[in-house]
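subagent[fold] <- orchestrator: predict structure for attached chain, return tokens only, no commentary.
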Amino acid sequence: MFGTPIIKTARPPANMDRAAIELRISSCPRLPSLGSINIALRELLSAENRYTGQIADVIRRDPSLTARLLRLVNSVYYHQTTPVNSIEEAVFYLGTRQIRQLAMITPVIDDFQKLTGRTQFVWRSFWQHCIATALLTREVITVSGVQPEDADYVAGLIHDVGKIIMAACFGDRFVEIHQRAATEPKGLRQIEVEVLGMDHAELGALYLQHHSLPEVMVETARFHHTPELARRHPKVVAAVQIANLILHQSKIGASGHNLPVSESDWMTASGWNILLPGAQPEVLGSAIARLKPEIERLPTLLEGLV
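subagent[fold] -> orchestrator:
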């Protein structure tokens, strides 16, 4: 979805210093959903006895979640002769795993959309990129034999939060950055530093730190391009790096990344050395092969989600 173009105002040509950027970040609104993501539904889905009727009752309290749920099930099961209009029926088709993912996605994306306001960008493709990164991060973790947890999914979802904060708090510079990225043979992060004085990775980490959000989110935002620098949660960050590269190479969604990514780039990414240290080529090859079907099914899922 494209927002209404903002009115560009004159600004000094020099980029901003860190203190000025941090001051501006401090006035940027908090994302309430990151502190508590549909706790009632998550607890219900993790209970020993799950009843479709109970799950449906919780979903009905959130109109945005309800709309996404019905859109998703009718997109994935498009071959049904009769559209699915019942929440209970949708829960039956999708299963608790996808319901749990939806419960996390919906409030976060709703908050993101409020933050970006009127700043012009390819936001629908960007939301698809964020959601696809979350879904694929979980798959990368799984094929690597690492025990998955909610943190890896949410970390993948918010890895590019710095771009959202840039649009929300530095709208004129955000627009200039992406106009330049469309025509210049420089990496996006280099252009961000030239125009703003800080790239989206560091900006996102500072924003999350300011709001005292979990360290796994902060590290993912800061190091999702360089997971080897992560100290406390390197495996989660590594999985996000790989998922991010896969999506850029596959052109699933869009995040403003402007330089081409090859299949070799994600297959040889530094994150694999963190997730599968010392692995033989056949082990890595097997993990990559298991990812391919998940990559192929993402476009259909995303059409139903955003």
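orchestrator: received. Logging for downstream: The chain has a mean pLDDT of 84. The radius of gyration is 20 Å.
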